[in-house]
Q: What sequence folds into this?
């Protein structure tokens, strides 16, 4: 049976948002856009931006996953008040994405924060090379001090390539970028033993450490009139996030400054919420996935100097690679072998086998001249490498 509450005798103290290093915040359409008028709730968004600025001021990297493009765009196309066909939703999203991006840009500019828009589909997080490209882009934006604002690319996504709900999108993004904290701003303040709207005896659960069948059963069915997936999709998002070593919290988003409300535990006067706590850190979860991958597509054979450097925590550079084995593409899992053929590491290749063969034994500053494009300096970056 899962531990569903935290006590000092059993588990460490309940976390707060102050512990976050890389934070993903999911914002639902109903929080951001007035469903009747199609207007963006600017006062609420300004308060959220103040929270984001406070997080960044204490060193937390912040990524926003937002819904609301269709809701924000339909008014301007005369589509309020009726169900939309798929092509009308995509048209509304096309104009709404501009309005959303502008709203985020304006509100965060008050804090001298640069905003970057990133549009994703489900395939972008599942197809390996697109996954790596998305991860690298978001990593770079964060290193440059920007706040990526991510939305599902509704203008091109069809039913078979849609996330279907922004809870799932938030969890996939958190997993993709190795975030340690995911906040789902919701219409309810967490998980209960039953639906509190129907059962007055429903009990709030502050901490979940394992997604058992009993926990999943508590999610029930989404009530009519509430956000698309209800608690069912939030539990599914928790499963994805926890598998990636990312803790997740469900909290009520309608209050002003909803992130600030998560900076204290409930016992300290903070907002009630439910934390889902994984058993591993994000980096450890990613390394475990790489180490456990059973089907390497090829191998790099390295010299003794490179083998020693890998043992000391370095990345694998082209200059240390003696030869390339197999046929693989960028992002595929490959083995790293020493001169005797013994596996000493494995990781995700930054280059295809064809390109890798062209740059073995070469310095990283020669890659662009040889390949005609500037790729990564490393054959395998240490974040994508597990040493045996």
A:
């Amino acid at each position: 049976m899962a531990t569903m509450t935290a006590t000092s005798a059993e588990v460490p103290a309940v976390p707060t948002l102050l512990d976050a290093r890389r934070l993903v915040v999911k914002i639902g359409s109903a929080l951001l856009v007035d469903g009747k008028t199609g207007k963006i709730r600017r006062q609420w968004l300004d308060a959220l931006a103040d929270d984001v600025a406070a997080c960044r001021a204490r060193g937390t990297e912040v990524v926003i996953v937002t819904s609301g493009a269709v809701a924000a765009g339909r008014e301007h196309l005369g589509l309020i008040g009726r169900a939309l066909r798929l092509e009308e939703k995509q048209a509304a999203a096309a104009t709404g994405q501009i309005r959303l991006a502008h709203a985020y840009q304006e509100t965060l500019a008050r804090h001298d924060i640069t905003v970057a828009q990133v549009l994703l589909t489900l395939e972008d997080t599942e197809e390996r090379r697109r996954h790596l490209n998305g991860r690298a882009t978001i990593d770079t934006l964060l290193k440059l001090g920007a706040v990526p604002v991510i939305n599902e690319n509704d203008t091109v996504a069809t039913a078979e390539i849609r996330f279907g709900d922004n809870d799932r999108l938030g969890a996939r993004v958190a997993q993709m970028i190795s975030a340690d904290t995911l906040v789902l701003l919701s219409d309810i303040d967490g998980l209960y033993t039953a639906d509190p709207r129907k059962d007055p005896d429903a009990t709030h659960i502050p901490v979940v450490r394992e997604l058992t069948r009993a926990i999943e059963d508590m999610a029930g069915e989404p009530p009519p009139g509430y956000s698309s997936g209800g608690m069912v999709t939030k539990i599914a998002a928790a499963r994805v996030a926890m598998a990636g070593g990312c803790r997740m919290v469900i909290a009520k988003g309608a209050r002003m400054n909803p992130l600030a409300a998560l900076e204290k535990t409930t016992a300290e006067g903070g907002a009630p919420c439910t934390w889902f706590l994984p058993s591993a850190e994000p980096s450890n979860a990613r390394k475990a996935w790489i180490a456990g991958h059973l089907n390497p597509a090829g191998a790099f054979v390295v010299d003794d100097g490179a083998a020693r450097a890998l043992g000391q925590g370095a990345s694998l550079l082209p200059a240390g690679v003696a030869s390339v084995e197999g046929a693989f593409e960028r992002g595929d899992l490959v083995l790293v072998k020493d001169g005797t053929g013994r596996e000493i590491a494995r990781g995700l290749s930054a280059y295809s086998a064809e390109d890798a063969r062209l740059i073995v034994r070469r310095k990283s500053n020669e890659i662009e001249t040889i390949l005609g494009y500037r790729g990564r300096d490393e054959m395998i970056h240490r974040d994508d490498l597990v040493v045996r």
The longest strand covers residues 22-27. The first helix runs from residue 29 to 32. The chain has a mean pLDDT of 88.
